Amino acid sequence: MALDHDENLQPKGDWGMSALDLPSGGRRYLQIAQDLADQITAGAYQSGDRLPPERELSVQLEVSRTTVREALLALEIMRYVEIRVGAGVFVLPEHLRGQENGDLISPETVGPWEVLEARRMVEGHSAFAAAGRMTPAMLEQIGATITRMEAAINDIPKFDMADAEFHALIARAGGNALIESYVAHLWAMRGNSLWQTWYDQTRKVENRRRSISCHKAIYRALQRGQADVARTAMESHLDMLADRFFELNL
């Protein structure tokens, strides 16, 4: 699955992205979240009401479902709504809402879709570069992280640490300190509220197994020095995470 970063693209569409075609969806979802919050405050939606389905909002607002989804996550963080997976999005009572109603969420907060899109671009290249510059010692370290992930399949903190190290080591092996710092920065964004609100709902052991399988595919390409294959495998891994985002039935 390719990541849709523009309202004119569909979830299954091609990337068609260059270094100058940076994602803009993050700012749009904040605008939509604020508009929906204002409607709730004004009484357009009452406590307990179910908001229109994601697909319907997407058509009404003429934006992608991705943008709508991130807007709904922002509303949930501020306690305007409760997302009940498989049932819908419901308005919460006023006394439960965030105090700063006029400033829904900091513009600096980046949504999970933007993080995934940027990671696809940056980490895809780092895997490509690493395949041509990898030393045996680096390869051994990367392989060891997969072993630790398998051993920690039911221990999420340890699994996450090994997962993060896998990606950091590939970025380091690529030999570009600036790209390595970009990867670290993008991984740090996984700690923000929007990412956690989404990601915590997909914490399933089968998803961790899928992640290990993706890591093994990347590792095999690095082991064989296949740069194009390594990049494709990394991009596929991040597309798998994007699928998890879309599989949630809000």
Structure description:
This protein has 250 residues and is mostly helical. Helices cover 62% and strands 3% of the residues. The protein is built from 10 helices and 2 strands; from the N terminus they run αααββααααααα. Strands 1-2 form a two-stranded antiparallel sheet. β1 and β2 form a beta hairpin.
Derived from helix and strand composition plus strand pairing, the structural class reads mainly alpha
The helix-strand sequence is HHHEEHHHHHHH
Give the amount of beta strand, in percent: under 5%
The radius of gyration is: 19 Å
Number of strands: 2
Largest beta-sheet characterization: 2 strands, antiparallel
Distance between the termini: 19 Å
Overall spatial form: elongated
- The largest sheet has its strands arranged as 1-2
Helix content range:
55-70%
Overall pLDDT confidence: 81
Q: What is the number of helical segments per DSSP (H or I, 4+ residues)?
A: 10
Low-confidence residue ranges: 1-26, 99-105
List keywords for this structure.
250 residues; mainly alpha; two-stranded antiparallel ribbon; 10 helices; 3% strand; elongated
